Predict the 3D structure of the following.
Amino acid sequence: MKRLIDRWIDTFLAFLIIGMTLVVSISVFYRYVLNHPLSWSEEITRLMIVWLSFVGAYMAMRENKHIGFDLLISKFSPRARTFVALIGNILILVFLLVVFWEGIAFSREFLNVGMPYTNLPTGWLYYSVFPVSGALMILQTFLSIRDLWKSIRST
């Protein structure tokens, strides 16, 4: 199931990058060649960047690519490193639960607020990225905690 979700996420991110490239290219063409700038292109591009950033953060978490500072932790024993990683993941989980919960509240609050040019609802399109990416990262954190717990129990 997780592999299927990851495949969908990778495809979604690829479409966002392609879509963003197309929208920006079309916008540049209209502005500088046709001398008729598009009013909606900046809003759509910003929307794509927001989704690409937050869902991309899940991808980085999935592949353990986030920046880490392990100068002190590298001095610990393997068992102590695993324990510290477990504590860190539990703290991350608490933070992500707050992001998820507050993201839902934020999306609801701005549900009927439209973007200036396209009038698309910001609550659904912009702010729903918080609960969506939060849920994805919560899933990944649960899996990491499970694996770390198994590692601690087996040693």
The CA atoms of residues 40 and 117 lie 6 Å apart. The radius of gyration is 20 Å.
